[in-house]
Design a protein that fits this description.
The protein is α/β, with parallel strands linked by helices and 309 residues long. The chain has twelve helices and twelve strands. The chain is elongated and about 65 Å long.
């Protein structure tokens, strides 16, 4: 079979050469690319002959997939699959498998890190002191004792809850499925409305699907405390971004942190979340650590090996 990895996946070329030898010993051809190209023409060029393809979060449309007639298996180096035309894959018997679990620690740690920054203004104060300023009258807030609402208790939400409990926060949760291990931490499941009303911090950990698109909008934001903070390391469209921007400007909520948006960065310079000093932003990096990328490669190519067997 022809196996193609269309991008570098953040792993060294030496690892790819080892994989090339590995698949050659099994009688397969392995082609890899050390750069990332997202245009459809390049994707078609790289994938058109592949029986198996490996890709991360680059959009795969029906147009691209339709020009890869041999494709039978996609090993996706990402947790979410909303960037792939799954309807086309299902109709054409292309098996799609994600890399669940590789970034659980990375995302949960960034979510908590964002909370700490919002509470203590670390980034803002760093800039202030570099400009010759001082603390002035600034007072931060502590995470300990805060009520944090975790929306979605899958693997990442559960890991985030565990970190928050260790910090001494009171954790409540809303999720489609209630997990015994989460309850065992002392976390109480409540309705989404109760969570939004009670929480000092709301952190989102749900996949993007029809049920969760626009989950947090104007109505939900209005339920939150004016001192509350919103953290989104899930998917941008889980929130109505325009409504969040207005809530920050109007003071409906006190602050927010977003690692994900309605599009992949770079964002327009006049993007609503960038126009307010109340939003901490990062360029979709929650999943991106040396450790998570190494684990991701193990998972992704382990899936390829399993498929070949």
């Amino acid at each position: 079979m022809n196996i193609t990895c269309v991008e570098s996946l953040g792993i060294p070329q030496t690892r790819f050469e080892e994989l090339k030898k590995h698949y050659a010993s099994m009688g397969h051809t392995f082609t890899y690319y050390m750069d990332r190209k997202e245009d459809e023409a390049t994707l078609i060029e790289r994938m058109h002959d592949a029986d198996i393809a490996v890709i991360s979060n680059i959009k795969l449309s029906a147009n691209v997939l339709s020009q890869c007639p041999k494709l039978r298996y996609l090993s996706v180096a990402f947790t979410g699959l909303d960037h792939i035309d799954l309807t086309y894959c299902k109709e054409h018997n292309i098996t799609v498998q994600n890399a669940a679990g590789y970034s659980t620690t990375a995302v949960s740690e960034l979510a908590v890190g964002m909370m700490l920054d919002l509470l203590r203004n670390i980034v803002t104060l760093n800039e202030k002191i570099r400009q010759g300023g001082s603390r002035g009258t600034f007072l931060g807030r502590e995470l300990r004792g805060k009520t944090v609402g975790v929306v979605g208790t899958g693997a990442i939400g559960t890991a985030t809850a565990r970190l928050l409990v260790a910090f001494g926060a009171k954790v409540i949760a809303y999720s489609r499925t209630e997990r015994p291990e989460v309850k065992a931490m002392g976390v109480k499941y409540v309705t989404l409305e109760e969570l939004l009303k009670e929480s000092d911090i709301v952190t989102l950990h749900v996949p993007l699907c029809d049920e969760t698109r626009g989950l947090i909008g104007e109505r939900e934001l209005a339920l939150m405390k004016p001192t509350a903070l919103l953290v989104n390391t899930a998917r941008g469209p889980v929130c109505d971004i325009a409504a969040v921007g207005r809530a920050l400007v109007d003071g409906t909520i006190a602050g927010a942190a977003f690692d994900v948006f309605e599009q992949e960065p770079p964002l327009p310079v006049d993007h609503l979340l960038l126009s307010t000093g109340r939003c901490l932003t990062t360029p979709h990096i929650a999943f991106a650590t040396e450790e998570s990328f190494a684990a991701r490669a193990d998972i992704v190519f382990g899936h390829v090996d399993d498929y070949l067997k």
